[in-house]
Design brief:
Layout (H helix, E strand, L loop, with lengths): L1 H4 L2 E3 L3 H18 L13 H11 L5 H21 L4 E6 L5 H12 L4 E7 L2 H11 L7 E2 L1 E3 L2 H10 L4 E6 L9 H13 L6 E7 L4 H7 L6 H17 L8 E8 L4 E8 L3 E5 L4 E5 L4 E8 L3 H10 L2 E8 L5 E8 L1
Parallel strand pairs: 1-5, 2-3, 2-6, 3-4, 3-5, 6-7
Antiparallel strand pairs: 7-14, 8-9, 9-12, 10-11, 13-14
The protein binds N,N-dimethyl-L-histidine.
Length: 330
């Protein structure tokens, strides 16, 4: 771990990320008429581990689709980068298993790059740095602990070298349509002309396939969402009884999104010590926890153009369930 620590830079201090912001978001979300909790708070150490488990589930196809794409097209991606030095910036890197495929290719091709993973979870970055060390001992790595937007600020202040930004795993799908436009426009504005973005989109498909991916038989997706209540109990002195909340996730065709929530199975009042107040829940009242938007390829292209990018290429898996689209900042 000592070795990994020297390679991690904390852009956003922990207390600023997790403390007040979390409490405020919980208070706002649970006081609203339609209750909700932001999905980014699922990812503490336990949440990140649960997400790693999700990526290995037989039902959760997006990870396997994207691995297939990166395996098939990594050499083509390496050719796009050429001989000039660049930053390989990984937004929301998670544990970086897919990124490894690219690191291996770029290293073998002798590309000159430094690797900059950005993640809100310091432990994920530390695990990743430790995990990469034996295989990539000469890799220039600087992990940044920050949320996406702070990570983007870093980008704009370190933009002498060309950036090749990875935003994989359909992470864009956890923003609503308006937020994804705002995010991508912000990202575009922090890039230089000619910089590249490889961005993953989960494509619309048969609804049963999508619904099963979020309703796995092992119940990991449920634990993952319930981790929000777990965190409120652990960090804010909440008194949630997790057995009285049931995970529910379905495809909303009009929104084009898997919408996930926690349903209170009975009428109840829950006290949260750090907020010094109680919250009422009606029987079967939902707390919205996450939306995972799905896309048509035309929507992907419109989004690119509207946010200041041009499309270089689209890389699909063999079933065309997922696309990694390569965009250039114009
Ligand atoms: C991280 N994100 C793209 C995942 C998704 O598919 O929305 C998170 C996830 N939630 C439940 N399963 C996976």
């Amino acid at each position: 771990v000592r070795l990994a620590e020297s390679k991690i830079e904390i852009i956003e201090p922990k207390q600023c990320r997790d403390g007040d912001n979390f409490a405020r978001a919980v208070e706002r979300g649970l006081s609203a008429e339609n209750k909700s909790l932001p999905c980014k708070y699922i990812y503490d150490e336990r949440g990140s581990c649960l997400f790693s488990e999700i990526m290995n589930l037989p039902e959760y196809y997006p990870t396997r689709c994207e691995k297939e794409i990166l395996t098939r097209y990594r050499s083509c991606l390496s050719d796009y980068l050429g001989d000039e030095p660049f930053h390989l910036v990984d937004l929301g890197a998670g544990d970086g298993r897919k990124t490894k495929l690219l690191l291996r290719q770029f290293t073998n091709d002798g590309r000159k790059f430094s690797f900059v993973p950005i993640d809100i979870s310091q432990s994920s970055l530390e695990c990743m740095a430790n995990d990469l060390e034996p295989e990539f001992c000469d890799l220039k790595l600087k992990g940044l602990v920050a949320d996406y937007f702070k990570g983007l600020e870093y980008l704009s202040h370190n933009n002498r070298e060309r950036n090749f930004v990875l935003f994989l795993g359909s992470n864009i799908g956890n923003f609503n349509r308006e937020e994804s436009r705002e995010f991508l426009t912000g990202l575009r504005n922090s890039l230089n002309d000619g910089d590249l973005l490889l961005i993953g989109f989960d494509l619309k498909k048969k609804t049963s396939v999508m619904v099963e991916a979020y309703n796995d038989s092992a119940g990991i997706s449920a634990q993952f969402n319930l981790n929000l209540l777990n965190r409120i109990n652990g960090e804010l002195g909440g008194e949630f009884d997790l057995d009285t909340f049931k995970y529910y996730s379905n495809y909303e065709a009009r929104q084009g999104a898997i919408v996930s929530c926690l349903l209170s199975t009975r009428k109840q009042t829950v006290f949260i010590d750090a907020l010094d107040r109680e919250f009422d829940f009606g029987k079967w009242e939902p707390i919205h926890t996450e939306s995972s938007y799905k896309f048509g390829i035309e929507q992907v292209h419109r989004l690119a153009r509207d946010c200041g990018f041009e499309i270089e290429d689209d890389f699909f898996d063999s079933r065309r369930w997922f696309v990694d689209s390569l965009w250039r900042a114009r």
